[in-house]
Amino acid sequence: MIATRILAVLAAAFLVAAFAVATIWPPDMSLAALIGMVDTTWLPVAQSFVRRALSPWIWDQVAVPVLQRPGWLVPTAIGLVLFGGAVSLSGPRGSRTRRWRS
Q: Strand, helix or coil at 102?
């Protein structure tokens, strides 16, 4: 029960963040541009870490396409996945017992 609420709150936070990003900045601004506005050194550091610690193909085939997408898309996707987790953990609709009888 508590995991469902935590996932629902996190989903709501990510969806509100996605809406804020899409509203404040141009909707077609890439995630790399948004991250570059916050910290200009983050992308080169992340690239060198991923290439050195994981694998170069992860940066080329996974990270670069994600960074080219609009900035609002990643928090929206994370929010939808968390929402799906909250819904799937909540169980079937009729599983809760009624407190009052009608």
A: coil
Q: Is 91 helix (H, G, I), strand (E, B) or coil?
A: coil
For residue range 12-64, what is the model confidence (pLDDT) as tens digits?
999 999 999 999 999 899 999 999 998 999 999 999 999 999 999 999 999 99
Tokens, residue 66: 């994600």
Domain coordinates of the chain in residue numbers?
Answer: 1-26+71-90, 30-69
Q: Exposure string (b/e) for 17-44, b if CB count within 10 Å is 16 or more? A: bbeebbeeeeeebbbbebeeeeeeeeee
Q: What is the pTM of this model?
A: 0.76
Give the 3-state secondary structure of residue 70: strand
- The rounded radius of gyration (Å) of the Cα atoms in the chain is 19
Name residue 87's amino acid: V
